[in-house]
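[Automated response] Your request has been received and processed.

Submitted sequence:
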Amino acid sequence: MAGTELPYRQSLDNCFADKIGEGGLPEASYEAALGEAEAALDWLRGAHESGELPLLRVPARTDDLPRIEEVAEKLLDNTTDIFVFGIGGSALGAQALAQLTGWGTQAHIQKGVRLHIPDNLDATTMDAVLTNADLRTTRFLVVSKSGGTVEPAIQTLAAMSALETAGGGKYMKHHFAVLTEPAKDGKPNPMRALAEANDFPTLEHDPGVGGRYAVLTNVGLLPAHLMGLDIAAVRAGAASVLAQVLDGRPAKDVAPAAGAALSVAMALEKGASMSVVVAYADRLERFLAWYCQLWAESLGKDGKGTTPVKALGPVDQHSQLQLWLAGPKDKLFTLFLTETKGKGPEALAEIAAKTKFDFLGGDAEQRATADTLVKNGRPVRTFTLPALDERTLGALFMHFMLETIIAGRMLGVDPFDQPAVEEGKILAKQYLAEGKA
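Generated structure:
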């Protein structure tokens, strides 16, 4: 199958006992885990063939792109600000993609339309961002898979109320678009009903793709298109990873399967109960947050799963490295290494030569952290990213969705549900109805 060359390089070399000693995984244990991963790969191939798992058909889709472009064009018409209202998977993937432009980092220079994704539902933040936007030229994209999620609902009502108060009520339909799934099984979809009542444009959220797995659908790609990103390249990157599965390769040669086998075996045999993901690029910070939700919500069931922890170096290197090196040996580290040598502001040699800092330069810090962890017997997996672009991020999204699904199959948990989270949502709605909140 064409397109199997990945835009990243994964290395597990520094995770094994013969390389790092007692903290590493014996090769025999890894081989046994790979054998278990083979069954998960067989299931994935069958699910792709039957259509049982719609996620696996998303990378090849093009039929939904015209509608994405159509709605984006309306949202961008005479617009200064766009708000994306969503929570969890309905926001984190969009944020991760947006960061390819520098959005949400200190390096971001505002050009054109301003994008806001206020997913935390902080009352003060919401008031500030709405107050500082010109509502006449502000548009709102509401993303809610079920249509009943409390957070985007209250954000939507607040924005509609602000428009009404400002005298723009009669133009309401020109300010909103809603992305939600169709009403199904006789159950109402409150957000769809609101959209239809107000004549808001709507897009279909694929009912077969859960929120935290939806970044490759219009949930992630519409905000990405609004930011001027190449959404076809995002899917092409994802397809390159999926191709390794569909090619029928053995688990050791399928990057997500190898990662899942390592993670599960490290947890069960070496007590690696924490998955620490570290990036040195600011533009990967929201990707790490996206990973943390995916991994925690998918695998944290029946007393199983490992705790994801995100870290941004060198900030978190200075605050956490002491613990990583001298604390409990309960962590599997994954480092994302970008090629930075020769990039960024230059320290001129003639200036550095007059100081005690003439040794500085290149990407030494991220490499030194990886090497220090290894020398101290900590297992370190690395992803080397020659470029940080749409194709690379699409590949990373698909890698970790597949790795999560494979790990779930190996652990015997359903990686697609979230019963504990649903319990909390029910209580929140109950408290609001009772006036306790």
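Summary generated for your ticket: Strands lie at 9-14, 81-85, 114-116, 138-143, 176-180, 202-204, 274-279, 307-312, 331-338, 380-385. Residues 27-50 form the longest helix (24 residues).
If you did not submit this request, please reply to this message.
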